[in-house]
């Protein structure tokens, strides 16, 4: 074999070696993520709970998907009489980079929600507002608002964020009770003789790194009737251990071929050197 041919073959084997090393050194990331949103869940006295259904999003690190109805009709809650006006909205996203976000709530007619690329939730209140009837009759007691929403985000690093917005929300009684626009976590509001309202209730359904936030949960006194409005859940998102872009079995086979190539070149080089010495 001539020196030029030997050099060309050595170059090919060297290139194969470099490519194999690059593939081994370049791990493939596949962080998982998930989020879900439920606009409302209502438990009527003497019956089970009904909800707006769940809008969910998941990602296995390679492919993201969603399922559910993002804006179900109020009629999905059946014949309940607690939520009497408003539009149900629920959205969630899960991305292949290990981040997720959710947003849910009740808005007025023509209103809606949208989740941005950074996970922020933009709320359009619409018109006509939202009404949750606590007591009917001649002198009703209602919760009224332009919009009631919650939101959350999560990352595969374990970080979570939450938020609740009650736009122009109040309880209409003989003495009106104003509700805070952005309540802190776990704020309890008493409507004397009628109900207890929990604002911005939060739990960690799958431990640290996961969160469920509810904008407004009402428990009627002396009754099993209850309503949970705007529940957003994010996480648990998992950071997976990086794996080689080429599976170990494939890398082993490739490495064997490269080693064999270097071996053949070495034998031919030695023979060529030996031939040169004999000629000399």
From TrEMBL:
Question: Where does the UniProt annotation place the signal sequence?
Answer: 1-30
Q: Which PROSITE patterns match?
A: TAT (PS51318)
Q: Does the UniProt entry include the keyword NAD?
A: no
> What keywords would UniProt list here?
Signal
Please give the residue ranges the record annotates as the region Disordered: 49-68
Instruction: State the name under which the record lists this protein.
Output: Neocarzinostatin family protein
Mind telling me which InterPro entries this protein's record contains?
TAT_signal
The record's section on NCBIfam families has: choice_anch_P (NF040603)
Which spans does this entry mark as compositional bias, Low complexity?
A: 49-59
